[in-house]
Amino acid sequence: MAERESEAVRNANKHFRKEEQAKKGAAAWKDYIEQEDSTRLKTARLRALRLARDAAAASGAAQPRGQAPVSTSTPAPKPRRMKKPPAA
Predict the structure, then answer these.
(1) What is the pTM of this model?
(2) Which of 15, 20, 46, 56 is the most buried (most CB within 10 A)?
(3) What one-character-per-residue DSSP string does 7-50 give?
(4) CA 67, CA 52: separation in Å to the nearest integer?
């Protein structure tokens, strides 16, 4: 009788683990879908901003108020450090 109880307990535990794994899998899949949607929305927004910026640059239009101009040139060189005078 004890063997049957332990077998029944093992069977119940196995089913419980499978249910828990299915719940965790569903939650992980939901998170994955949400992250994918978020990434898709961000990409679309950034693409629209880039296209608008490129169109404005191509037409020679001024930047809208409150936005700093976007520089496409190379960055300015760093200032050189002065050498320390030799110790006497």
Answers:
(1) 0.47
(2) 56
(3) HHHHHHHHHHHHHHHHHHHHHHHHHHHHHHHHHHHHHHHHHHHH
(4) 13
Give a yes or no: residue 10 inside a domain.
yes
Instruction: Look at the chain and count its residues.
Output: 88
- Separation of alpha carbons 26 and 32, rounded Å: 10
The total number of structural domains in the chain stands at 1
Which two three-digit tokens encode residue 9? 């307990």
Domain interval for residue 52? 1-59
Can you say how many angstroms the Cα of residue 41 is from the centroid of all Cα atoms in its chain?
12
Helix, coil or strand: residue 6: helix
63 and 56 in contact (C-beta within 8 Å)? yes
Q: Cα separation of 66 and 56, whole Å? A: 15
- For the four alpha carbons of 18, 20, 26 and 31, in that order, the dihedral sign comes to negative
* pLDDT surpasses 90 at 53: yes
* Residue 72 resides in a domain: no
